[in-house]
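Example 3.2
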Amino acid sequence: MQQVPARAARRSDSTGRTMPGDLAASPFRADRDRISASAFFARLGGVTQVVSPSGSGLLLHNRLTHSLKVAQVARAIAERLLADPVSRAKVEELGGLDLDVVEAAGLGHDLGHPPFGHLGESVLDRLARERFALPDGFEGNAQTYRVVTRIDVRGTEGNGLDLTAAVRAALLKYPWTRHSAVPHEPERLPRGASEPAELPGTGAAKFSAYSTELDDLVDARTPFDKTVPEWQQTVEASVMDTADDIAYAIHDLEDFHRVGILQFTTVHHELQEWLGRCVEFAAEDEVRPGDPRPGASLELLRRRLHDKDDWIADDEAFAAAVKKVRTELAINLLERPFDRSQQAEQTVVRFSGDWTRRLVEGVRVETEIEPRSGHVSLKPDQWHEVQVLKFVHRHFVLQRPDLALHQRGQDRLISNLVEALDGWLVDEAEVAPHRLRDLLDLARQEFDELPAALLPEGVAVSTLARGRAVIDFVASLTDDQAAALLEALSGRTTQLWNDTFVL
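Structure, written as tokens:
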């Protein structure tokens, strides 16, 4: 039987051949199909991206449509790199670049994303660490890797989707665990590897595998040992990560414009005031967070970029990016409110298409890189533009008081649901949902097999296993399923069955 490269090997089959039931001959294309056929992938259609479409009557992005667009952009980036002889030679030197691998990674990168967007992620992390003493806590990227290697089910044997090493490695945006050491000076750590300032002692802010999946991470990365450092993304992971940045920066702004959250006056005023006062701002020794002056928040962004990314941050490129976003986002898109007319739709489509094309064309590949960069990244002009677009998203949407009010309710919903499910396992585990019991059995086995050094002192394995099972279960729900299940557990519904959730 003909052997295939190690990067195409599956854990269950060292030859990397496709298995019975796969429609595609290519192992990488089979992986793409396995992900797109997964129930966890279909679930993303019911998981909020940022803004809930409820009540708006508009078709807004969710985690499923976002993943489809990331896959589309990732494939477009890969096609451009492979079409250029110089870039193609570089990616081959770095371990290879396959179109189906990057598309599979784009489709699968959010499989572990919990209900209610990033708010759900932070709540589950807090509960995992504080209620159950799980050292790994919860992280969406690590949960994605757990889904494809442990939780999802492809056939009758084993756990996970049995993906090739290349696709598993392409899902590793942050190829380390929460508490694994990254071989760099603290001020030059890879992006995501440092501890969050608000949570000292909790380990890396971003990571792509829990301790229970560490062996699988090492296995997926082994074919790339000689081409990329252990702390660095593979080329295909870097393509997916860049595509995610592009889709996030552009398509969420479409939604905010459609629902009327982004207003021309406020956005334009902030950008224009910074442009008019940038020299004045630069001369100040300090600009504090919360400074009410128009343009001050954008100045804080400029300073933060210099602090974190001095290898690429440039004042001229930043000013040019602010001007471009002011013109193309504020003036050309936001100046006219979205009224659902054909002209309004055409304006949105033009904005999205022009920006996506520009950013994809601004992607480059480098063999020698800074720790906070990837081998595939945006050129300086486009990189600054993405930072400004993300600023608009963060400053004018994520920091709104009304969104904070909504998220407080979601925080309580998830917290109460975790408490209720945990109590169910303690009181009557034998009649708990079958899937929850399956996850409990899996977690018990995993923690029993972990070295004692990786377990917290004084915490029973039963507590750790129960916590991981409950967190896994809640993270696998849609927004509506989470709400409906809590309604049932709280006795606030008289319906035994409904379309939203059936145990």
